[in-house]
Every structure is written in structure tokens, then in C-alpha cells.
Design a protein that fits this description.
This protein is mostly helical. It is about 70% helix and about 0% strand. The protein has one domain (about 30-175). Residues about 10-25 have low confidence and may be disordered.
């Protein structure tokens, strides 16, 4: 009887762990319509043989979903950043911003979702860029911010900009903003 109880407890513990892990890990089978099609990211994964050696396709896609939806460590995802920017914009401006943010998000997400050893865009950059986008006051400032971040993403991927150069002061000077008001 005692052995049966221990087996039952062990089985329940394993079932609980599995249930909790499904809450933590994004479900790539349930790909949301609010982000680019899954095939876009599959193609990006397949184009990088170095990353394939370190990360499975499913891991890459799960990290892609985490980029967009957030996760336990970083609760805000790209969709939250987009929503904050679009909520602050007027209706006509939101349409134009939405298109720009969608393209920028895909470019960032494709790189950020890679294995840590290979990716050129890290979580520190995501936090910085998210802050920039959310603190941009008006439409013109938002568009300048999106353009500056897009140019830096391209430069990072081309190797003409180093990770260490992506810092607050770069954007404060470039965009004439004060990110953290001397926080």
C-alpha cells in the first residue's frame, strides 16, 4: 500500500511538472495571427546552419514566440511594445506605425531568437529599444525612432555596428531624447 502511494505521488508530481512546463513554454502549434507567419521564421532558421547546430527548430520558434509574447523573465513582449506605441498614436498614424513596427519586430525577433552564443541582438538591446519606442512622444519622433533602430539592426547584422555601441547615449544624442530623465 505504501509503495502504491509513493508511485501515485511520483506520477502526480511528474504530471504537475509537465502541466507547469506547458504554461512556461510557448506553444508553437498555436501560432498567433498577430505576428508574421511561422514559415517566415522557419526560413530564417533554415538559412543559419551555425544556429541549427546549437538550437533545434522548435527551440528557435519557441524563443520567437517569447520575443513577441513575453515570458516569465521578460513579461513584456514585442506585441506589448507595439500596442503601447499604437495606443499613443492617432488612428491614421497607427496604420503607418503598425506596418513599420511589424517589419522591425520580425527583423529583431529573427535574430534575438537564436542561440545566445550566436545572436547579435540581446535582451539588453530589446529593453533599450522598447524604452525608446514607448517614450517617443509624437508621430515624427516615433518614426525617427523606428528608423534609427531599423538602421542599427541592419548595421548589427551586417557587422558594421558592434553590440557594445548600442547604448542609451547613442539614441539620446541621435534622437535628441532623454530616455530615463537622469534616473
Amino acid at each position: 500500500m505504501h509503495r502504491h502511494r509513493q508511485s501515485l505521488r511520483s506520477l502526480l508530481l511528474v504530471a504537475c511538472c509537465l502541466a507547469l512546463s506547458s504554461c512556461i513554454s510557448p506553444n508553437i502549434a498555436d501560432w498567433p495571427d498577430t505576428i508574421p507567419r511561422q514559415q517566415v521564421f522557419v526560413d530564417a532558421y533554415l538559412a543559419d546552419s551555425n544556429n541549427q547546430q546549437l538550437q533545434s527548430r522548435n527551440e528557435y520558434l519557441a524563443w520567437t514566440l517569447s520575443f513577441y509574447q513575453g515570458n516569465l523573465a521578460y513579461q513584456l513582449g514585442w506585441l506589448d511594445v507595439e500596442s503601447a506605441v499604437l495606443t499613443a498614436a492617432g488612428e491614421q498614424e497607427a496604420d503607418q506605425l503598425s506596418s513599420q513596427l511589424r517589419g522591425l519586430g520580425a527583423a529583431i525577433g529573427m535574430e534575438w531568437a537564436k542561440h545566445n552564443r550566436l545572436r547579435l541582438i540581446d535582451s539588453r538591446m530589446l529593453a533599450l529599444w522598447g524604452s525608446i519606442l514607448q517614450t517617443s512622444g509624437n508621430f515624427d519622433q516615433q518614426m525617427r525612432s523606428i528608423e534609427a533602430i531599423s538602421e542599427d539592426v541592419d548595421a548589427l547584422l551586417e557587422g558594421s555596428l558592434l553590440k557594445n555601441d548600442v547604448v542609451n547615449s547613442r539614441y539620446e544624442e541621435m534622437l535628441q531624447i532623454d530616455l530615463f530623465d537622469d534616473f
